[in-house]
């Protein structure tokens, strides 16, 4: 699915489900994209991959046409530009605290005059119809993670940065940063208040909204709330649960 | 678990559950051995790994002490000796058809005078207490796969080969080779007849018995029948089922 | 292009051009399949890759749908089955000398009762519509290389082996083995006599015909002669020529 | 050895010897931890490894229980968090010059409210008893390298930063930076003055002390001075000396 | 060719031709350096390699003695020092905008007192005659890329930074940044004006001059203008053109 | 050192010392060849490398010009041809028992009409002056390992096989196979008798002689006896001894 189709889809109020990939393996990336997921996110922050494996995973996952997102390891222009050159359709930047953080992030994602991305789309150009340079600034999807108390405090300014496409909530770090009693509890009023504020800012600034969940019920709940990009778990955890459950069932 | 403990365990009529690893990844090997499986088998035949990944997986899975088996890619002394040097506790040889096949297989697993294994246990020696050369022939576990019509026809001679430790049934290839109506259907009388014959030969020749299953109920059934080493599925299939199921549940 | 389409194409007397990949790199495989080649051959014999890189190259080359052939390192059932499980559409076996060689080769490519391929199409099943087991024997393409004086002497018997899909001429080894004056000279009468005999045997036994060339003019010539699968060079040599030429042009 | 045991050990005034790993190889990491070293440091700064190899080395070295330290390539929160997620027990940060440098370093090592480490201990959680989140801030060991004239000038402020666990002297860079006559000469009065000042600051602020040495006699000397974590050489240099010496002995 | 020879060569007004390597493969690096190129640049910015592959490429390219340059992924001291330790003879830093940028870059390339490079030339020392520490600051070649409007505006100050060895023009990003009509058109007056200004600044400050080109005619043109280090294309593009051209020629 | 120089050297009765590489790492291969060893052997049998690492090690070790030998994993034409294509100067085949074994081995090493090696010296051609095809049969060095009781019994016939260049004794497997009291004890009369018989057969058939030793004194002893290629230990063992010794010296 191209990001153009995805934008259209989201603009109609639809939700896209997403899975995080943390296993550093092209094979599991290929297997998972053959299993019905229309978008996926390679998690370079807490996943065990670096650029080399990320590239191999982008290659292995390409045949199905699932849209590849990458969660960056950090707000760093070097790796941001490198994953875009390698064919990431969207990038999700962790640990955004301020509008200045967003500006640094998005400027690295766009060619001049919008930003300062350097030109050399070695692999990306093969996966874009038409002239890559002309199309790139319109195609790349940029999400800022909202996962700290600072980000919540600066939400209005963050949402207003030109060039940003969406806000993506990280409920684990957010719970910790806000000092909530339970981590990533989707029934927590404090967390839900942030969900609402993020949805409002997104509506106001024409941004897409996203959130990371680990349970199917939580994912469905936030989809109903109107979130566009809803992650439901990661491959390492899903595999761990499945093999633990199977071992236990054997007695 | 050392192979000595495993032999003791099996001699008391107990079953060890096992999982096949087909994802070429040290990380998933480490994750799975931290999830309660006391033995595992790296599948070099139909799995996507070669020796390099196999070595890395043996290393990553070592901390938990789960017993590492390796299904060989083929009955080939070069790779057999190499995985033993790398620290495989047990080896399972596919596509055994005759007693001569078994002789070729087991001779590669033992030092003279029992066999012709060449000396150089570069990694294995670090995971064996005492003198490796003195201990190795007693420790290594050798299983011949029974998965062809020829093997069934030659079962008596196969079971009688000196040095072999066990028979391990491969129900998929066996169903195909026997021309059974359904593949790997554990209710099939033809398959069950082979199960019985294998158990009888194992009892007669003091061999351990094993079988590959994909469902928990089949695994429990063969465990009750008395099989010692019971595999219940492989990581790629378990992951695929889990991520497909989750995607479907999201609607 | 599926092998079904390819068979259809060839049955109509058309030629498919092919390139050998010898650089062990998923990136160059991806780049080359985006450059207009509808089939390619990963050369595990003289190329610098092994199974690990071959798998990564199959993954990287998959998005374009170019048909992946693999030249086996040797007539060995272990690697033959492994590359088929990994998704090779066709396999080319080097150094075939006799009908017995062909029998050993093709038996490893087909499930029973046609052969003794073991079941476990871990990656291949994702790239086949319908039931893989039911389809596989019809889909896999098997080529025997004709590149020794012995093969020429035994041509009639080689061509008659049931299950073989085609003959593929290796003019370098063939020239050496026949003791021709110049290596792989397409004007050599001795070489051309073999070309004719191979085409005749193919016509007689309903086989496809192939040949390795290094020059565009030679490739066109053999295409006009009626060869179906015509390789024109390999990536290492093409790159070497291009960078040498460029350096020379700079003065 | 857990970091809890190590802290206890050091608090009793004992020394732990340590070796730096610069060869990018899981096998040598495994071999060395089987050779009696109770702690080791993967040197991501001057060693030839990056995160991928570091992860593989952590896995290969895990069975012996030797405590894994990592010298970071630089004071960068992205890689600091990533190696902690991957299971580093302690981190040593090079090129610390000021208290602000230390603050940036240690904040990346601790979860809120102590710091801003992001939550996702994908591998680390499997090697910690109890709840990882609750335990992590107490377990991780943080060392700042003292290896520049600036660091010596700012020593008092550096040592006073809350959250820092120890100071680790790098005598090579320190000699260069101080403009000493000989590099890393442990008899140099200038170097010894720094040793004393570091030990005093450590005593004052309840910090652990460490130093890199290359000779056994130097290591013993600083151990007697009271240093807790004493590195004695790196694997590349030790191997180089050994093979050079052997070649010379052959004549 | 040592950097000493290269400096001598350039001081006599000669040009060295150079090729960018973007394929992450030691084999293609080896192949290309055996094809007549006396210097090459591993492009860690837009090429698909990271440090691991870069190291392997430096090793594979070493036998021919071609001088290894590395284009850094970014102006980051961690990776700068790491590639110098690994044996880069020269480093080219992208996206330099100001004199401060240059200062940050060159300080990372030199040992004190010239800079703050940390000592540990693990591989580099084997490829330097004499004492590495004593020689290094004289040997390493440092080039700042001039490829933004800001850099052009700050050219005088950039050229004046002590320790910098040369200016290297990136005409693609430069065209984009200057808002020129056509990208990297060597006939563009705007681009040529920058060429002249760079040559003048180089003459004035005793700097070497370089430029990236993609066509032989452009490379010859800038060589005639007096540029010292003239890149003529990259391996991925050259391979792509060659295989596309060949496929087209076959009809 | 070319094999031509080596043959000359040996013909004058000189000894070349050699080291076995078992660590699967290009870096240690590079380090060791920079430490004075004029020949080395990559041990694909008991070492932890496969073809991929072997290739990388050949590349990393090439700059010094040390002569690369490879101990094959097994007497298998596929891997024999592949390592020759990759640039091995000499090959040592393990577990030779009969003259037929030698014939199978050496035929794979030579182009027709001497053998059946297939043509495609992708990397080797870059390291041979002149026409590779014309030179190869004269350059490649072939050693058969004498390490079983069968080989000793068949020594006369083994030594007489045309095309073989030398005999190389493996004292570990030989001791085991002969049932000697102590393994690889160079004072053992049984072992010394084999040494003498091998030297006699080599003299008689114009073959070179080699032996594997682990101690400097044993290496010197066999060199004095007249052995040409004398291995003195392997990198894993040398590193293990050195780090164990250092740890012990620290107390």
Describe this structure in words.
Six copies of one chain form a homohexamer. Chain A is α/β, with parallel strands linked by helices. Chain A has a single domain (3-250), classed as Alpha-Beta Barrel (TIM Barrel). In chain A, 46% of the residues lie in helices and 17% in strands. Chain A is built from twelve helices and eight strands. Chain A has helices at residues 3-11, 26-33, 51-61, 77-85, 99-107, 132-139, 149-153, 155-159, 171-178, 189-205, 216-225, 235-250; strands spanning 16-21, 39-43, 67-71, 90-93, 141-146, 166-169, 208-213, 229-234. Chain A has an eight-stranded parallel barrel, surrounded by eight helices. In chain A, strand 3, helix 4 (77-85) and strand 4 (90-93) form a beta-alpha-beta unit. In chain A, helix 2 (26-33) runs parallel beside helix 3 (51-61). The longest helix of chain A is centred in the C-terminal third of the chain and has 17 residues, at 189-205. The interface between B and D is medium-sized, with 14 and 14 residues.
């Amino acid at each position: 699915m191209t990001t153009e189709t995805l934008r259209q889809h989201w603009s109609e109020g639809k939700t896209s489900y997403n899975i995080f990939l943390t296993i550093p393996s092209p094979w599991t990336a290929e297997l998972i994209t053959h299993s019905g997921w229309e978008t996926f996110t390679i998690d370079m922050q807490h996943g065990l991959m670096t650029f080399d494996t990320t590239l191999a995973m982008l290659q292995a996952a390409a045949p199905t046409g699932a849209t590849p997102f990458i969660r960056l390891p950090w707000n760093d222009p070097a790796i941001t530009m490198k994953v875009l050159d390698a064919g990431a359709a969207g990038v999700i930047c962790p640990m955004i605290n301020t509008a200045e953080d967003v500006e640094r992030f998005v400027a690295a994602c766009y060619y001049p005059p919008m930003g300062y991305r350097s030109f050399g789309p070695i692999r990306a150009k093969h996966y874009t119809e038409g002239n890559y340079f002309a199309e790139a600034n319109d195609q790349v999807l940029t999400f800022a993670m909202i996962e700290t108390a600072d980000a919540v405090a600066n939400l209005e300014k963050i949402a207003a940065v030109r060039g940003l496409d969406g806000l993506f909530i990280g409920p684990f770090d957010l719970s910790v940063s806000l000092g909530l009693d339970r981590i990533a509890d989707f029934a927590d009023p404090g967390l839900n208040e942030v969900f609402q504020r993020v949805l409002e800012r997104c509506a106001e600034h024409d941004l897409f909204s996203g959130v990371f969940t680990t349970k199917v019920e939580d994912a469905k709940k936030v989809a109903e709330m109107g979130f566009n990009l809803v992650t439901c778990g990661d491959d390492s955890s899903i595999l761990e649960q499945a093999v633990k459950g199977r071992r236990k069932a054997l007695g």
